[in-house]
């Protein structure tokens, strides 16, 4: 026993005297990266190239434009991220309006009100209009129809006036031509050889 204890003590002293430092294994970090699908935000930056919207469907929607022939994957990704950020901002504004009325559900009314209250969403007025009653909608439709009819009547009147003006100009040109021709005939000089026929000459014939 004594020999074994002495041997262990000599080993410890030799390891300490040599100056060697034992390296410790790195401790595992408790912080784990969150995936973009599980996190509340749209894009956390940890998973590159991942969006909530399916890229294939976004690409198909972009190709619905006849002017677009080819779309790169990078462009599809950026458009998807921009769309998600816009939808997040839009729904947040609508949700704030629902919270003011002490509601937890976002309704169409909140979206339409957000469009009218924020200048950045003004371009959505035709897509997300404010709700109307049936009588108000019919009245609005009737007024729009009357405006269209008035526009068509004004266009027809303008065409008739243009045609009348064109015919009037042509008639004036014809009158000027006839007047000028009459002036030429009346300005002809009568020579000495030309004799005016009197009543006596007519009886002789």
UniProtKB/TrEMBL annotation:
Keyword Nucleus applies: yes
Organism whose genome encodes this protein: Modicella reniformis
GO biological process: DNA-templated DNA replication
Region (Disordered) location: 1-42, 147-205
Alphabetical list of InterPro entries matching this protein: CBFA_NFYB_domain (IPR003958), Histone-fold (IPR009072), Transcr_DNA_Rep_Reg (IPR050568)
GO molecular function: protein heterodimerization activity
Origin: domain of life: Eukaryota
Amino acid composition bias (Low complexity), ranges on this chain: 27-42
Protein name as catalogued: Transcription factor CBF/NF-Y/archaeal histone domain-containing protein
């Amino acid at each position: 026993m004594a020999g074994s204890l002495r041997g262990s003590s000599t080993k410890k002293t030799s390891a300490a005297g040599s100056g060697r430092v034992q390296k410790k294994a790195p401790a595992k970090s408790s912080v784990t990266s969150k995936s973009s699908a599980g996190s509340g935000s749209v894009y956390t930056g940890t998973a590159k190239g991942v969006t909530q919207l399916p890229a294939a469907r976004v690409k198909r929607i972009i190709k619905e434009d006849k002017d677009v022939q080819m779309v790169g994957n990078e462009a599809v990704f950026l458009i998807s991220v921009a769309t998600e950020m816009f939808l997040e901002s839009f729904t947040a504004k609508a949700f704030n309006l629902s919270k003011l009325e002490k509601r937890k559900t976002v309704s169409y009314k909140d979206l339409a009100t957000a469009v009218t209250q924020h200048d950045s969403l003004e371009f959505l007025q035709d897509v997300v209009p404010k709700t109307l009653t049936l009588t108000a909608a019919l009245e609005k439709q009737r007024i729009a129809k009357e405006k269209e009819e008035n526009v068509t009547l004004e266009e027809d009147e303008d065409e008739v006036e243009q045609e009348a003006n064109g015919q009037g100009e042509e008639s004036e040109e014809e009158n000027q031509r006839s007047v000028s021709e009459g002036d030429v005939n009346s300005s002809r000089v009568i020579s000495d050889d030309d004799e005016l026929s009197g009543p006596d000459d007519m009886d002789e014939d």
